[in-house]
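Shall we go through a protein fold together, starting from nothing but its sequence? Please make up or recall a protein chain and show it to me in full. Go ahead whenever you are ready, and we will take it from there.
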Amino acid sequence: MSLPGISGTALFLLVAGIALLVAVGANAFAGRYKVPDALWLIALGVIAGPVLSVVSSSSVLVVAPVIGTAVLVIILFDAGLDMEGAILRTLLPSAVFFAVVTYVSSVVVVSALAYAFLFHGDLALSLFFGAALGASSGAVAIPIANQLGLLPSLRGFVHLDAGIEDAIAIVFASILLLTVTPSGNLSSVDFALALALPIPVGIVAGILGGIIWLLTLSRWQNRSYAALATLGYVLLLYGVTKLFLGSGILAALVAGIVIANAAGIRRLVRWIRPTAVHPTVRAVQTEVAFLFRALFLFFVGTFVVLVNPGIAAVLVLVTLSVGLLGIRYAVAVALSHAHRLELTWTPTLGGVGGRGLTSAVLLVLPISVIPGAESLFLPGVLLIIGTDVAMTVWVWIASRRAPDRPTVGAPSADSGLAEVRPLLERIAREDEERARGPGILDRREPGSADPGPRD
């Protein structure tokens, strides 16, 4: 289908403009009702692509993975800028454990059900489907966590978990893609390097990259185009890290964390100037990430092949949509019993597990490599939509119940987080006007003193 008198380029720009306007409206809707805007953008892509054939999937196949990866890099770098060192040191071990166990468990469950019901014994497609859909998406979880008005500690935990899961999923999916492709006969040395290098190289590159930013670009951030220079630098860091077989996504996250903790880094590198990221830089990052993300999610909808998935497949996807959040909740409860998390955090951690950008980016990668990879998209998109809907309902229920039960304002003595209590109390006082949600400070512990007026 095409509109009379409109060329292909003009038609594409027309649809892209509509996508951006829909994204703005969907974002406002998400801020009010906590419904992920990814649902509306993917639906628009389905209408423009397979339904009306206005945009063909082949025309966006090359650019879509590039845009999606760029969005992940920017979002995770921005998430790293929100992580203060005192909270990070305490939360990191629990966040790593939570992310690894949640992702591995999700991959096993999704791959097994996909092998049995969705791809009928095709091991390569089933494993890749599990690798792509096993991780919650930082592009979905981080904005929702920010909108809920959570305590900084819980919000930081969600950011850390999302960043770690994104990095693990991309590394695992990339290795899997190398091994299951027809030309993927890796030597044992190549396989060992592909398995061992991405995470440590990504961490080292992120640390070095963050320090270099503090030494150079921080001196220029009040000048024109400093925000674009920062974005260019982060994308450059991603490319250089990938050149050395590291995880560029993880490098972006670590670089953001280093920059956010410039005061601590100055104790080790004395010639770094005292600095803080200028609000304009953060604002431009947010706008650019929003633009790319909206276009990519729209493109994802154009890849969907509309076929009848069958009743069994639909039931499996519905079960997974809820079950994947249940896995997160179970792991969070286990961590709380081990005194590494507050028990009142578990509903929120279970709920913010919607799939989205990360899964969509990974689903695009094998299209031109694995035979029959196009069949990944319909169940993949349905599962992304299903988990996002389940997350919306879960978060709404948790938000409704939060005012009716005591919520913790600062870590209890046996939670393993008590050492950051003074910092959390200070930040909570600064954030007390935020909209309330699960995990937010809405009452002081019995017997606690009045914190007094703000500084």
Remarks:
- The chain has one domain: 8-404.
- Residues 68 and 361 are 6 Å apart (CA to CA).
- Confidence is low (pLDDT under 50) at residues 1-5, 403-416, 430-455.
